[in-house]
Amino acid sequence: MASVTAPAHAADSDGAADPDITVEPMRTGSACIGSARDSTSRSSVDDGEIRWTQSSKYDDARKKANKAWTSNGLEQVKIKGDAWNTSNDLHWKDKNKKDGALATWTMRGGVGATDTIEMNDYYLKSGRPGPFDKPFYRRGAAAHELGHALGLCHKDQNYGLSIMGPDGRYLPDTKPTSRDRKDYHKLWGTDLCEEDSSHCPWCCRGCRSWGCCLHGVGRRQRQ
User: Fold this and answer.
1) In terms of pLDDT, which residue wins out, 35 or 82?
2) pLDDT single digits (tens) 157-178
3) What is d(CA 140, CA 8) in angstroms, rounded to the nearest whole number?
4) Which of 48, 128, 181, 213 is the S-S candidate for 204 at Cβ 3.0 to 4.6 Å?
5) With contact defined as beta carbons under 8 Å apart, do 152 and 146 qualify?
6) Would the CA dihedral through 200, 206, 207, 208 be positive or negative?
7) Distance CA 77, CA 9 (A)
8) What is the Cα–Cα distance from 62 to 56, expressed in whole angstroms?
9) At what angle do helices 59-68 and 135-149 cross, to 10 degrees?
10) How far is CA 190 from the centre of its chain?
11) Residue ranges with strand state E in the chain
12) Which residues does 215 contact at the CB level (< 8 Å), separation at least 6?
């Protein structure tokens, strides 16, 4: 592995790490790479939400990632800061390791356990050699790892561009692509109004959620 291309590792609950954002060539044969599958059980989601804390210096990247996975119709899983009366599901922090990983999501598993996303100073810190110390890669890595926390696996780019692709050099964006949005909805449900307004009453078209429709926020008026 070429360390300057540094992408991330997503670790199983037993501690074994799978290469993330690596320099391996793209594979063919499945939407996910290898035997992995998108999974609600292999995620940080608890009762329809991810409650988070953070001690990372890359707060801009975390904020952008949170917004990317909770806007434009991606409303099924709530991503909110932890509170005194909630259980912390995910902690953002930093590491400094020459391990070929821009960032790492680790699933701890177990009741009350807190998963982690670690942003890697070795590649992302300002002034480091290589391209990865730029906001684009920091935000892309954060969005990629939060995608893992939402249950998404590594995706073969031959099946369409994805923020979940395994090579950090070829991140298509810093937010989910149309393919990622479809995969998210397969796991967590689909907002029919967002996907196809023909499913919605005329008064709800223009809303992005049934809550919007039911409570009248953003309704379009009859012409």
Assistant:
1) 82
2) 888 889 999 888 778 889 999 9
3) 11
4) 213
5) no
6) positive
7) 23
8) 9
9) 50
10) 17
11) 9-11, 17-19, 49-54, 78-81, 90-95, 103-106, 115-120
12) none
Q: How many CA atoms lie within 13 A of 57 on its CB side?
A: 10
CA distance 196 to 178: 14
Q: Which amino acid is at 154?
A: H
Q: What is the CA angle 174-80-41, rounded to 5?
A: 80
Count of CB atoms situated within 10 Å of the CB of 134:
12
CA dihedral 157→161→167→173, nearest 10 degrees, is 180
| Bridge-based pairing state of the strands 17-19 and 9-11 | antiparallel
Nearest to 117 by CA among 20, 191, 219: 20
Q: 110-138, pLDDT tens digit by residue?
A: 777 899 999 999 999 999 888 899 999 99
Number of other CB atoms surrounding residue 157 within 10 Å: 18
Q: What is the pLDDT of residue 6?
A: 54
Round to whole Å and give the CA distance between 131 and 137.
Answer: 8
Question: What is d(CA 178, CA 102) in angstroms, rounded to the nearest whole number?
Answer: 23
Please enumerate in sequence order all residues whose Cβ is within 8 A of that of 214, keeping only pairs 6 or more positions apart, or say none. Answer: none
End-to-end alpha-carbon separation of the chain, Å?
60
Please give the Cα distance from 122 to 98 (Å, whole number): 6
Contact between residue 19 and residue 166 where contact means Cβ atoms under 8 Å apart = yes
CA dihedral 28, 32, 36, 39 (to 10 degrees): -170
Helix and strand counts by DSSP (H, E) for the chain: 6, 7
Name beta bridge partners: 81: 52
